[in-house]
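Let us walk through a complete example step by step. Step one is to write down the protein sequence. Step two is to encode the small molecule, adenosine-5'-triphosphate, as a SMILES string so that its atoms and bonds are unambiguous. Step three, shown after the inputs, is the structure prediction itself.
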Amino acid sequence: MTDPVLEVRDLVKHYPVRNGLFRRSVAAVKAVDGVSLRLDRGRTLGLVGESGSGKSTLARVLVGIEKPTSGQVLVDGEDVLHLSRAGRKQLRRDVQMVFQDPYTSLNPRMSVTEIVGEPFAIHGIDPAGGRRAAVGELLELVGLDPDHANRYPHQFSGGQRQRVGIARALALRPKILVCDEPVSALDVSVQGQVINLLEDLQAELGLSYLFVAHDLGVVRHIAHDVAVMYLGRIVELGPEGDVYDAAQHPYTQALLSAVPVPDPSVRLVTTGAPVTTPVEGGVSTDPTRAVGAIVLEGDPPSPVDPPSGCPFHTRCWLAPTLPEAQPDTSASGPPAGRPGTGLRLVPTVCETEVPALVPRHGDGRPGVPEAPGTAPADEAAHVVACHFARELVAHRVEA
Ligand SMILES: Nc1ncnc2c1ncn2[C@@H]1O[C@H](COP(=O)(O)OP(=O)(O)OP(=O)(O)O)[C@@H](O)[C@H]1O
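Step three: the predicted structure of the complex.
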């Protein structure tokens, strides 16, 4: 049975853009623009997307560092945004954050005892056996020597500092850890150790993780479910295997196709993706990029003025903009797609408003997506905010 520990419903976080003498709000940065997702107890939800897509903003809102503009956040079914003061305090205990940079997130003037014990002081908690003993236990839990508790952050390596950060996050026995790029500042050799530690802690303590990362390889390793974010919205969400092996949204396909592979001659297979690699004379000029990678042109549009309809349509390699991509209405069969893609075309759909992407259970409760590939009962269904891709998949299955 699925057991959501965290549910996010239509969450919005806009930052005002101020101008003029009176600093009036003239526009808004739509950092998070209607996000819905669900994190099940004891599981890890990976959150991926390009820089600026809104991942950190979402993470900060979930741990209560920032207030959302609108929307709902439910922890164990309780709407935490409308809690009493005591309720908010409890939320701060239930949802903790592991920060990206263990070099800047630890106060260099505080000893490890003070850093890890700080949450006790803030919340006025005196653990049984005393704070010093509790800190020692936490250090042991994360694989550090309790005898080093009086040392300062600069006396530890990057990986050890991140362990200190994890120990601090665990001090109040949270239910959820929001991990914002927790290993991206670490050497590759150390990343694995920290990931393994997080997995062990999850198994031991039943923790649930929202794991924000750029590195799709790391997310594939640790996440049970994956959400893909673009320009403040989730564009695809589903079980890890579905998203990685049968990505449906063109943006996800592009992200996955750009994952470096050791052998540049290896052709990556992406669902129906035309080969648009940066090649010269048929040979990839970038040894880290596989032939077959989908290169997204340009930067993401500004979150101050995102495109109408699907926010990705201005960079979408599937968007039906070519003249030959017009539907053949004279034929009785499905309209023709782009030459060579074998894909059915759904005209103008990218311009139409994309409804909020709501994660579904796969057990027939309302709103289970009709697209094929719906996950079995009690798993997060695979949902994708691209009608065009959905139509394509449906057509392929029919064919
Ligand atoms: N305090 C703020 N005031 C105004 N705009 C902000 C603020 N914080 C973030 N933004 C903007 O919101 C958008 C999303 O930023 P965010 O840092 O959440 O993205 P991200 O996906 O986490 O990127 P990265 O991976 O680089 O951290 C960006 O356009 C960013 O400039």
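Step four is interpretation. Residues 188-205 form the longest helix (18 residues).
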